[in-house]
Amino acid sequence: SQKIEQNSEALNIQEGKTATLTCNYTNYSPAYLQWYRQDPGRGPVFLLLIRENEKEKRKERLKVTFDTTLKQSLFHITASQPADSATYLCAPASGSSASKIIFGSGTRLSIRP
Amino acid sequence: ETGVTQSPTHLIKTRGQQVTLRCSSQSGHNTVSWYQQALGQGPQFIFQYYREEENGRGNFPPRFSGLQFPNYSSELNVNALELDDSALYLCASTLSQGHYGYTFGSGTRLTVV
Known about the structure:
Largest interface: A-B, 23 and 28 residues
Number of helices of chain B: 0
Mean pLDDT of chain A: 91
Helix content of chain B: under 10%
Oligomer: heterodimer
Strand content of chain B: over 45%
Order of helices and strands of chain A: EEEEEEEEEE
Number of strands of chain B: 11
Distance between the termini of chain A: 41 Å
Strand order of the largest sheet of chain A: 1-3-8-7-6
Strand content of chain A: over 45%
Radius of gyration of chain B: 13 Å
Mean pLDDT of chain B: 92
């Protein structure tokens, strides 16, 4: 069955450093992959989408890579700030007409001042 | 644009009862997905509606059903509630089946006692 794995342990990073979160998937080949941020008690917020023919995508301090050979995506936050503290969810999707996105369990990121 | 609105925000039901959760999609979005999120877990896909037709379903029993209306608003119905149905229920809307990211509501917190 399709499986998504994210860092199960919380990630604690010093402010100003780069945070790197990992997403590995097995048993399928997503046409694109999305990353979301979720704060406690709130719905996820869409951050970035990267397609299978794109190796890297950037948005302000965020960078996402997508390696379809390794079946892995990396999510980087540069110059991290305490306000970046949240849970980050990886969501690969199929490209079919019945597309659905499947979420990983998320990685909790904590940026300490 | 107004975003995704869900109602109610909180709900307490008794085991065996039925519940209806409502979602108003973001203006212009024709695709709605529903997710169940248990504490500490990623959102689990229940089903997706595209132009009023169900076009994808996750691993949930038939007592979970839904509707999408001509204005693209949606309902999630759960019959014969079980204690394990206690969770945050999230509605997400998008244009063109998710190729541009999903907009999530803040969710309905359902507690079954």
